Amino acid sequence: MSLKMKKGLxxxxxxGVLIAVYEFGCAISSMLPIDLxxxxxxxxxxxxCLVTGILKRKHVGMACDYLIDNMSIFFVxxxxxxxxxxxxxxxxxxxxxxxxxVVTTVLVFLSTSATVVLVQRLMEKRAASATKELAx
Length: 136
Description:
This protein is mainly α and 136 residues long. It has 5 helices and no strands.
């Protein structure tokens, strides 16, 4: 079996794990008395599983990297949908839409960078504490 095929099978298995967590989140969502999207619950479950060690990076890491590397594909349907509604974006509505797009983009950039910095610091602390444990 070639290396590419092995890598593809690993990614497919990891995608299966991610889909299972998503489906479990959707199942929980359907039982809740409030409307909470299943994908949000699934992300919370995935985070909980990763933090607690139930799942490790090796169980989902390659699939996550693959999805992030190809993330632009997921924006094509949204872009096509916006192009279908161009008539709604005339006059003042276009300015409002552009303002919202710019503001939310900046907010996403800022929150993402803050999250990355926080995670890096946590990982450095974890690595430092693991090094101290090994030194004992």
